[in-house]
Design brief:
This protein has 177 residues and is of the alpha+beta class. 53% of the residues lie in helices and 21% in strands. It is elongated.
Length: 177
Amino acid sequence: MRHLSSRPESFAVSRGQGQRSQRGFTILEVAMSTFVLALGIVTSITALQYGMRQVDTARNMTLAGQIMQSEMEILRLQNWAQIVALQAAQASATTPLTIDPATTITSGTSTSLDARLTAIANRFTCTRLVETVSGQADMKRVTLRVTWSGVDGRTHEVNFQTRYAKNGLSDYFYVAH
């Protein structure tokens, strides 16, 4: 007589194969997946740091441009004698004069906005160099330089250069050929 079992033979065979697949992960598989996960996290953090550094540089570049624009607008309001006096105020012909950026972008009032603008502007250093253009007694070259330190401690610099003619730039080009 045949023995009747509650389990079919095919189940017994498949159970043996099933035990093999249920053993779990090997230490090598766990190590590899941990390495891949760690690499992904480190790469993401590095990318975020690089992106934040670029955002900081872009914001500060905009502020530096605004400081230079404000200073340039102040210079455009000066007459020839005042520009010559700015050059004479320099320690030497090649030593630029340091300008307080807060004076160029704030109104000088004691409002909370001006206090915040002054705090932001104090992170920047602005210098101005007025020089006589070689061979052109009636023309000055004005160089503005703004420097600052980024969030990563690196120094950044933006330069702007223009010319100022005694009788106006257009007058100089049309008359002095």
